[in-house]
From TrEMBL:
GO CC, one annotated term: plasma membrane
Membrane topology type: Multi-pass membrane protein
Family: Belongs to the NKAIN family.
Taxonomic lineage of the native organism: Eukaryota, Metazoa, Chordata, Craniata, Vertebrata
Family annotation (InterPro entries): Na/K-Atpase_Interacting
Top-level taxon of origin: Eukaryota
Protein name, UniProt field: Sodium/potassium-transporting ATPase subunit beta-1-interacting protein
UniProt keyword annotation of Membrane present: yes
Length: 106
C-alpha cells in the first residue's frame, strides 16, 4: 500500500489502471500496475533524498563561512568620531564630591 510519486511518474514508467479494484484496496486509492520503468522508484527516491542532503550540507557549510566572514570584519570606522585612530572615548565624569579619608577616633 506504499504510494510513491516516483512509482507512477518515474522515467519510462507506464501506468495502467486495473478495474475492478480488489475488495481489499481502499476506496480513495486507485489500483494500478506500473511497467516499463528505467529505474525502480526506490532507487530514484534514494538518489533524490541524497541530493537533498548534499545540498543542505553545502548550504550549511556556506552559511557558516558567511557568518565567519561577517564576524571577522574589522570595524575600523568609528561612526561617532569619524576616522579617529584612537577610537571613541566618551566624556570623562567629573565628580563634584571630593572623597576624603575618614578617621575614626576611639
Amino acid at each position: 500500500m506504499h504510494r510513491s510519486w516516483w512509482m507512477e511518474n518515474g522515467p519510462g514508467c507506464t501506468v495502467t489502471s486495473v478495474t475492478p479494484a480488489p475488495d481489499w484496496a481502499p476506496e480513495d486509492h486507485r489500483y494500478i500496475t506500473v511497467s516499463g520503468c528505467l529505474l525502480e522508484y526506490q532507487y530514484i527516491e534514494v538518489a533524490h533524498s541524497s541530493l537533498q542532503i548534499f545540498l543542505a550540507l553545502v548550504g550549511f557549510i556556506y552559511a557558516c563561512y558567511v557568518v565567519k566572514c561577517i564576524t571577522e570584519e574589522e570595524d575600523s570606522f568609528d561612526f561617532i568620531g569619524g576616522f579617529d585612530s584612537y577610537g571613541y572615548q566618551g566624556p570623562q565624569k567629573t565628580s563634584h564630591l571630593q572623597l576624603q579619608p575618614m578617621y575614626m577616633s576611639k
